[in-house]
Design goal:
It is a single chain. The protein contains 17 helices and 15 strands. The chain is α+β, with helices and mostly antiparallel strands and about 475 residues long. The chain has 5 domains: about 5-55; about 65-115; about 115-180, SH3 type barrels (Roll), CATH 2.30.30; about 230-350, Orthogonal Bundle (Arc Repressor Mutant, subunit A); about 365-475, no CATH class. A 5-stranded antiparallel beta sheet has the order 4-3-2-1-5. The chain has a 5-stranded antiparallel beta sheet with strand order 9-8-7-6-10, with no helix packed on it. A hairpin with a 5-residue loop joins strand 7 and strand 8.
Length: about 475
């Protein structure tokens, strides 16, 4: 099997050969069609080589993370799609494999170093509010962060590997870790009882110390492990109340369990719950969104929509798009529960281009060929364009007679160095001509034609120079 390095080397050889062929054809008027064919072939080779280069720093099994996420995944496969795009297939939950852009991923050095693994114990470092406590690692996260069995998350600078105290065996250590917060705080005193002689006065002193610590713990509001779990369960019930209602309404509707008393589902909901038709179906649609996201909740840090209004904006997307949109929403809100207003604003932008931002696609000054434009802009399909502003999910481009705001889907990159160098000057010359008053109609026709040519032939350059001279424009 050919390695990525060998494939890249072969593509570079093909690229150099095509450049040589193009240089030999340059200036030969009878070879225009052949020149264009080689240009197209060269662009494809360059794009393919760049995609292979983006995959070269990865390998199957490597732990990776996104720069803006705490999730840690492992690479399952490296692919080049039929359309020529590079894909890194990553599992974020050890089950589902998801294609990712290599530009958004980076190897996780902490996971590669294998400093810690699931089941190890850590001690929280000084300066943290839980300083001195010991926890069992349940999940490894990006950049050395860990999640413990009781759902605490500690960054790499917040923990060190646990070292067993002298005189305690493995069984005693397990019992020590499983104690609640109050017992963990009193560990030193308990060890004193075990290691010292069982004198009555010493034991009494230790008991007094334990009681004092527990009293202090209650005063500052800390919870035991059981209380933390109870709180978590109650919070989930509050967050998922709309989901339970929507799921129940969906089942009542689908099984027609209302038929013994009401003719329609809408009448039943109005009489039984006081729900208007719109509210019923909003709850059902919200439950459908949560069911869709729940299958991939691990990659979202187990964060799901907390209200029906948050789900409402996502219902405009198909299920696969809902997953991508929710991932983008959590990235923009820093992994916190977003409000309905925040989600609505983000979704409005994602409707234009939900898969990636414009800044991930190109840079200012890059050149493209326009494609798949619709409506009044359809006439610019096939024209060249130069990007001059990167917005959230659209790209502002210059064409020969105006500016357009387009999506990345409407742009085919042009990677030919000569074209990239010549087009900005061609645009400048066309713009200066169009600024002249009373141009002949033939001039507009010629300029429109030049707006579709990636490079100027000798004759086209002379024609453009003639029109500049006729209207008093100097280079």
């Amino acid at each position: 099997m050919i390695s990525l390095i060998e494939e890249i080397s072969a593509l570079k050889t093909q690229e150099q050969s095509l450049h040589t062929s193009l240089d030999n054809l340059r200036g030969q008027r009878s070879k225009v069609r052949e020149h264009r064919q080689l240009d197209k072939e060269l662009a494809g080779i360059i794009r393919k080589r760049q995609n292979y280069e983006s995959l070269a720093r990865f390998e199957v099994g490597m732990p990776v993370n996104r720069a803006d996420s705490k999730l840690l995944g492992h690479i399952c496969d490296l692919k080049i799609t039929p359309g020529g795009l590079a894909e890194v297939w990553v599992s974020w939950d050890s089950e589902v494999e998801i294609p990712e852009s290599p530009n958004l991923l980076q190897p996780d050095e902490w996971a590669i170093a294998q400093i810690i693994s699931v089941g190890d114990r850590i001690t929280v470092s000084d300066g943290h509010e839980l300083s001195g406590k010991t926890f069992v690692v349940a999940q490894l996260m990006a950049r050395g962060a860990v999640e413990t069995k009781d759902e605490h998350i500690f960054e790499r600078e917040d923990w060190v590997l646990f070292e067993s105290p002298v005189g305690l065996g493995g069984k005693e250590n397990e019992e020590l870790t499983s104690n609640d917060d109050a017992k963990s705080v009193t560990t030193p005193e308990i060890q004193m009882v075990e290691e010292s002689s069982p004198k009555l006065e010493v034991l009494s002193e230790v008991i007094v110390t334990v009681e004092a610590v527990v009293t202090t713990t209650q005063e500052i509001g800390e919870l035991t492990e059981d209380e933390e779990q109870e709180r978590h369960q109650l919070e989930l019930k509050v967050e998922r109340a709309y989901y339970e209602a929507g799921s129940a309404l969906r089942e009542l509707r689908d099984k027609r369990l209302y038929r013994s008393t009401h003719r329609t589902f809408e009448e039943y909901c109005q009489d039984r719950f006081g729900f208007q038709r719109r509210h019923c179906y909003r709850l059902i649609e919200a439950a459908n969104v949560v069911d869709n996201l729940q299958e991939f909740c691990v990659q979202f840090g187990h964060i799901l929509p907390a209200t029906e209004s948050v789900c409402r904006s996502l219902t405009i997307f198909q299920p696969p798009q809902q997953i991508k949109a929710w991932q983008q929403i959590l990235q923009e809100t820093g992994g916190k529960h977003p409000t309905g207003k925040e989600v609505k604003g983000i979704v409005e932008r994602l409707k234009e281009k939900p898969l990636f931002k414009a800044s991930d696609f190109c840079c200012v000054g890059d050149v493209f060929t326009l494609t798949r434009l619709e409506g009044a802009e359809r006439k610019y399909n096939g024209c060249w364009a130069i990007s001059f502003e990167l917005r959230d999910f659209t790209i502002a481009v210059d064409v020969y007679d105006t500016t357009l705001a387009v999506k990345p889907d409407n742009l085919n990159p042009i990677d030919l160095p000569d074209v990239r160098r010549q087009l900005p000057e061609t645009l400048k010359r066309i713009r200066r001509l169009r600024e002249c008053d009373l141009l002949d109609r033939c001039v507009y026709t010629v300029l429109e034609s030049l707006g579709r040519q990636m490079y100027l032939t000798d004759f086209e350059n002379k024609l453009l120079t003639f029109m500049e001279q006729e209207h008093g424009i100097e280079k």
